[in-house]
Structure formats: structure tokens, C-alpha cells
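G.,

No rush on this.
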Amino acid sequence: MSEHYQFHAVEYAGLKRGPRLIVTGAVHGNEVCGPIAIRRVLADIEHGDLTIVAGQVTFVPVTNPLAHAHRRRNGDRNLNRNLSPTAEPKDFEDHVANWLCPLLARHDILLDVHSTTASNPAFAMLGPPDNDGPVEPFTQFDKERAWALRLGVHRFVDGWLSTYATGVARRRAAGHGNPLNTDSKYGVGTTEYMRSVGGCAITLEAGQHDAPESPEVAYRAIRNTLAYFGLSNEAPPMPVTDTEKLHLYEVIDKAHQGDAFTKAWASFHPLQAGEVIGTRHDGTPVIAPEAGCILFPDAKAQPGNEWFYLARTVA
């Protein structure tokens, strides 16, 4: 029963003034590197190996306790979609949101630790350039990018919410999809919500779910974040220099159950302009419009839902 679960956060404050950071893990319950890394950092603090000297840090090792207890991605639904408080919670994730969203709003910075099903190198998902548009207005582009370079990973991806919104508009115009994936709010997760309340945020994809190096990547990113923002007693880390920056620019939906990929694609697989990615059920090829790479391919996607994303390299 979902009422058997409770929410738990651990907070430290330093003696000096500083920013307010929140670090979350297990937004998806089967992504265990976040809880492992966060608990390791907590142990460092408790044992005196690390000190919070400024600002405030809140650690949430397990954000979705129902999903985590069952070691599955979701409890009742995906917590990292349509994240917002609601007066009438209908599922467990609504209850999580009612606790989590006010907690996020009390902070300035969010590091949300995730992992992936595929064996991809670690990467970070970033917010958009500064803008005052209707999709994801943002004013902390420089701050977020500078911080990202200190996480210890070398690949960075942006453009999520604007590309998702493009897909929503296309589904609405075609009369396809369901009430969830035809609502642009369904693209809002932890980091998008954090930016909506004035903060900056990064999703760290620390590696494959069960890879032994993923908790280490997450642990180092947390320690680096604490040091970079002057919250801990460690020296600030140097920025990485050999980086790959990608911008999501297109989402392609599966239109029919018979739509199929030409091969078992994996995220970040390079694409050449004109390369055939898949075939529609009527034999029409789905072709890469330009050189770049494929992201988040889902061979099991249902018709009317996201099939894969396209990204291009940016400076």
C-alpha cells in the first residue's frame, strides 16, 4: 500500500552565507546510483571527511520511495513528467510532487542524479539559452553551463523541453496521442520545474543502471558541485576541456505498430545526412535530415508516442 511510504530528506547548513543546493536520487526507482552516491556523501559528512562550510545542502537519497522499494522505474506513473503540485492527488507520484515541488522551490540549485538502461557514457542534460519565451523562460544560462563543466562528465545535451513542445504541437494538429503526450506540461520534470521557480538545475545521467562506475560518477559530481559552489571545505574543481555539446532539435513519433527501426539503435549513435533510421509500416523510409546523432530510441514505443529524438553538435 502506498500509504506505507514516507518522504525523507537530510539537511546541512554551513556557518557562512551561500547558495541553497538540493541533490536528489531515485526519481526513477530502479536508478540506484543516486541513492548510493548520496549516502556515501552523507557518510563522508558524518565521519568528518567532508564539511559543509557555507549555504545549505539538502540531500534526498530516494525521491520516489514506492518505485524504489519495487526497483522499478515508476510507482503509479513517471514522476519526471508533468511534475507540479495538485490539490487533488490521484496517484502516488502526485503525493511525491506535493512534497517535492515546495522543497525544490526553497532552493537555488538542483542536481538530479539518474542513470540509463543503455550502456552510454555519462552525460548531463542542461537547460535552454536565456530567453523570455513561453516554453521555458530562463536567465541562468552562463551559471548552469559553468557548473556543468565541473561535474566531471564530458557530454552535454540541451533542448529537451522545446523539442518536446514541438512534438506536442504536431500531435495536437494531427489529432494523435493521448491527453498526456499532447500536453506540453507532460515534458516538465524535476529540472524544468526547478527552472520555473527561478533556480538552475542539471540532470546527471551517471551511466548504465547497474554499471559499477555509475555510483562513482555520481559521487564525484556531487562532491564537485559542493566544492564548486563554495559549500564544502574542498578546493573548487577545474573545468573539463574535451567536451561534446549536443542540441536536441527534433522528435519523431511512432505512427503505427508496424513502424520499425532498421537496426537496434542506441543513444548517441552517429547519423549521416540521408541515413535511413527506420521504415514506416507502409514502407516509407524515415531518414536523418542532417548529420548528428540519435537519442532516446524506443523500439517498444506505442503509436502516437515518441519513437526517437535527433540531436546536432553545437559549439
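When you get to it, here's the other one too:
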Amino acid sequence: MTRFGYTMMTEQSGPKELVRYAVEAERAGFDFAVSSDHFSPWLTAQGHAAYAWSVLGAAAHATERIELMTYVTCPTMRYHPAVVAQKAATMQILADGRFTLGLGSGESLNEHVVGRGWPSVRTRQDMLDEAVRLIRRLHSGELVDWHGKHFQVDSARIWDLPDQPVPIAVAVSGPEAATRFSTSADHLIAVEPESDLVEAWHHGRRQCTELPGGTRSIGQIPISWDPDRERAIERAHEQFRWFGGGWPVNADLRTPAGFSAAPQFVRPEDVAENIACGPDLDAIVESVRPFWKAGFTDIALVQIGDEGQELFFKEAAEPLLDKLRTAYARN
């Protein structure tokens, strides 16, 4: 059964609003809520960049059922893996076992701020791989000394560990990365409905018979619901046109000004062709369908724009979830 989630976009809403939206998402019946983890918004028009871990801690106490997840945290530059291990363990305790640690290799926009430069993609992947292994080691509760290629830890121990281990999901953008991380992480993260990623992930896991079952493939898709389709398109173009550059370009951009310049030729009609905009819930369902067709078990929706959230929860969230679940059941 595919599960459907809500995205707490730290780039487009303030921290108190994000917690309120998590509560509304639980009330509406979403299965899980994911949070972005950025130091800066992609575009100045978005206007926010709250600290995701404070928001998630507050959301854990404000909700009871909905699962929570980072989508995604980069555990290599802005955060040392030992710090990520500590706060993930604390989050799992606060959330009573509802938390999943989503990790990725990051974007220059958020990671360059600590003044360590921006490595090549191959180096970033190597750093992520080592970080995942180090976090796993620290979550054992043992006293850890680690002298790796990229990270060093001296006499470190996580003192507050949850009864339920923290599941780790890793974001990938190609089959090679999917295979690489399939044995070190529990779950796959991807933002494109590409079946070859899911297949590569499962192929890699089948090579290791000791891995547990229950692996998930977690996708994400933006939507712009609004009773006024033109306003929905306008909002999507204003705040989400940066998607046109693609990950290979976006990962290397350093500032919101760069994200604004890169898609300068992306028109509102181009956005409307790629993002479901307006009041038509059936059109949104059809935009989501390719993810479950590709084998994704979990799909998080991004409702674009802070101004549209309240009305989305009031008028669209519940009927949209009903339609999504009905369409999935009919396949």
C-alpha cells in the first residue's frame, strides 16, 4: 500500500506555521510528514529558512500519530555526522519511534556557508557514505573512535538512545548511487519517478542476504492547489521555477540570486506543464501516479506557497487523499 505524506517546506513558511501545518496534516489523514533542512531558501520570494530540527522537535510533541522525517539532511559539512547521530537519536525519543533520518549529499546553497568550500560530486558521495557508516556506529551506543578519510571522532558516545533504532534513508539521483547505498541505508529517497532507481536499489539489497525486509522508496512531488488556477500557476512560477535547472545544476548554485538567474527563461506555462496547478484534484492524482507506478511506496506532496496552506487543508487535503488512495487501489 502506497502511503502519502505532507512536506513541511522550511523555505516557504515560518517555524510556528510549519508546526501548525504538521498538526493539520495529521488531522487530514496524511501518513507521514517530511521536513526540508536548508540554511537558505532557493529563491528570495520564498523568504524563510527555519532550523529544521527545532521544527521537527516541536512537531513531535504537537502530534501523536504522523511519522516524521528529514528530507533531507546533509551530514557532511554544515553538520558533522556525530552531531547528526546525536540529534537523530533525540528526535526518535521525542517522536516515540516515528522518526526517519533522511540523508543526502547536499547542495552548495546550504553547505558552503561554513567556509569549507564545495567538493566534487564524487567526493560528496564518498563523504556521505562514510557519514552513514559513522552514524550507524554511533547509534550502537558504544564509545567510538573513528579515523576515516573524511571524518574523525575521538571518544564519542550517544548517551540518549531510543528503544527503536533510527531508520536511515538516503537520497540518490542515479542507479549507481542507488546500488551503492542500498546496503548501508534502510530506505531509498528520490524526487523523480524513475523505476530504474527502485530496481537498482532492490537489486543491491538482494546481494546481501543479511539485510532486513521492509525497505521503502520515498518520493516527493510539488503541487500548487488553489481554487484559482491562474493564481496557482503564478505562485508556482514565483516560488518553484528553480526546479528547471535539475539537480546537477542546482547542487552547485551558492545563493538565492543564482537560483533566480538559472531559470530566468522558465515561463509560467512551462511550470504549469510540469507541476499540477489549480483546483482539479484528478489532475493532481494523475501527476502523482507515475511514482507508485515506478514502485515508490511513499510519496510526499509539496503544496507550494505559504499563503495556500490553510485553504489547502480546509478544502482540498482530505478529498485529495481519498482520491489518491482510491486511484492507487485501482492501480
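The first strand starts at residue 3 and ends at 8. The chain is about 45% helix and 15% strand.

Enjoy the weekend,
O.
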